[in-house]
Amino acid sequence: MIGRLKGLLVHKQPPWLMVDVNGVGYELEVPMSTIYDLPELGHEVTLFVHHAQKEDSVSLYGFLRESERRLFRDVQKVTGIGAKIALAILSGSTVGDFARQVQSGDTAAISRIPGIGKKTAERIVLELRDKLDGLDGGGTAGIARPMTGKTDPLGEATVALQQLGYKPAEAARMAKDAAGEEDSAEAIIRKALRAALK
User: Max alpha carbon distance in the chain (Å)?
Assistant: First the structure.
């Protein structure tokens, strides 16, 4: 089992990234909460890792904070929730905010996350209400550094929103509405998700 990786960040295409560890490139899927705080390409990064093995595939999921990995694992214990929805939760909300929504029974806010309907939100509250104590978003593994813009931030943001579960037309509209003149892909995604989850 792989629990942590430390190496150079060599590729970043939300929600995917690659970390070079002594010449071996590890490809990981990460939530937007991690993408926002990654260092620039070529810098060292340390990630907490969730290693998922199925009969026909092996997947690695990376997180800058241990609390994010714990929430990712906890929500998948709820019936009907897999890795894709767990990543969407972490991409649209902080760990602390999501824990507060669950503990207060705010199913309306939870059901605004892509892939979660009212019944699933109710099941999340029922099954996780007493299990999310102590989740505050702490425990950073990697050091946050400013990010550089990409050549096509609007296009990257649109693709990332689609991979989070939004339909292509909806993702394009969300990205376009959120985009500012000098915004990076990460900034567009962050603003689009905040607007969608209000």
Answer: 47
Q: Which domains does the chain have, with CATH numbers?
A: 4-63 (2.40.50.140), 66-128 (1.10.150.20), 153-196 (1.10.8)
CB atoms near residue 195 (< 10 Å): 11
Identity of residue 99: A
User: Which amino acid is present at 168?
Assistant: P
pTM of the model: 0.71
Query: Phi-psi bin for 127: left (phi > 0), alpha (psi -120 to 50), beta?
Result: alpha
List, in order, residues 6 or more apart from 162 with CB less than 8 Å away.
168, 171
Long-range contacts of 111-115 (CB under 8 A, 24+ apart): 112/196, 112/197, 113/85, 113/88, 113/89, 113/197, 114/85, 114/88, 114/164, 114/165, 114/166, 115/84, 115/85, 115/88, 115/165
What does the pLDDT look like over 138-184, one tens digit per residue? 444 443 333 333 357 887 888 788 777 777 788 888 888 988 888 88
